[in-house]
Amino acid sequence: MTKIAVVEGDGIGREVVPIARAVIEAVRPDLEFFEVEAGYGLWKRTGNACGEETMADLRSADAVLFGAVTTPPDPGYRSVLLQIRRELDLYANVRPIRGEGVDIVIVRENTEGLYSGIEWMESDRACTVRVVSRRGSERIARYACALAKSRRHLTVGNKANVLKSDCLFVEVCTAEAARAGVPCRTCYIDALALDLLMHPDRYDVVVTTNIFGDILSDAAAYLVGGLGMLPSANIGERHALFEPVHGSAPDIAGRNIANPVAAIRSGAMLLSHLGDAAAAAAVEEAVRRVLGAGIQTRDLGGVAGTREFGAAVLREVGRGK
Ligand code: ATP
Ligand code: MG
Fold it and tell me: How do residues 49-62 score in pLDDT, each as one tens digit?
């Protein structure tokens, strides 16, 4: 039996994840779901945001459907998502940006770069080490090239004109692209950020380091209706976790106004990862139809609530069967 761990987490994660789960269940009633607790809410109750038990549960699953966790500005608090990404070694963060005339996949290195976690304070300065390893670059390059091979081409986002660490990243990515026979070009990340928004049709697969990918994908959300629309996958050799790109959005939590599309589409990516392309396509199609019928949440200019939107998608997937 295929087992799916479900982590609602905090904030709007608790509103959008149950909807995504219901949609996946509707197309794949054979999957077994189990709830796993993690996040700031759990930390407040137990003093631990993501303990060994949580990690063991996540490891035991075939895939994880994840909502969002709040990271409070508390010095004693470690980011749960960074911990999970590191412990499950989820090295590829895959963020498709799809919409009218836009079809881009941002592949972000997920375990090192400026999020290496190697940081310290000195008397009058704070230091964070940006780590780019050959092994880390090779595996993300291989992932991006395999994806680009089935699509069109690859762009390597970098700042090698300033950062030595990016010279290595570019060297590894271009070598891998040549080996794989993938058309490839390199682009400085600042110029890329503007050009991607002005000419999205010039881009297909974009591979880049951790923080650049994080920022670039939030900005690219502008092309397709905002953060509420973007799903993502975190892929490792042995584990996979699917989550909306957005965070817990405490400012709008608990008001039935969050857009559940990002979470539902993350569910579609999960189905695709399980090898069920037909179910994934059915979910995507249902979302497209509901949006096309003018049922939209407030961030898209509509009036539908989170639950009402979810109910409409469930009706559509039911009809598709
Ligand atoms: P976190 O600290 O968990 O990352 P955040 O305050 O950074 O939370 P995000 O979730 O990253 O919040 O989103 C930034 C803003 O975008 C939110 O304040 C919210 O207004 C909006 N937003 C994010 N996700 C959604 C969504 N699914 N539907 C509607 N608006 C959203
Ligand atoms: Mg955020």
Answer: 888 899 999 999 99
Domain range for 242 is: 1-90+236-321
Instruction: Provide the CATH number for the domain around residue 25.
Output: 3.40.718.10
57 flagged as catalytic? no
Provide the 3-class DSSP secondary structure of residue 18.
helix
Q: What is Dmax (Cα atoms) for the chain?
A: 64
Please name which ligand lies nearest the alpha carbon of 69: 1
Q: How far is the CA of 183 from the centre of ligand 2 (A)?
A: 33
C-alpha to C-alpha distance for 248 and 9, rounded to whole angstroms:
8
Which residues 6+ apart lie within 8 Å of 311 measured at CB? none
Looking at the structure, tell me whether residues 268 and 279 fall in a common domain. Answer: yes
C-alpha of residue 249 to centroid of ligand 2, in Å: 7
Q: For residues 163 and 201, give the distance between their C-alpha atoms in angstroms, rounded to a whole number.
A: 28
Nearest CA among 213, 149, 155, 142 for reference residue 184: 155
pLDDT tens-digit series, residues 117-145: 899 999 999 999 999 999 999 999 999 99
Give the number of the ligand closest to the Cα of residue 227: 1
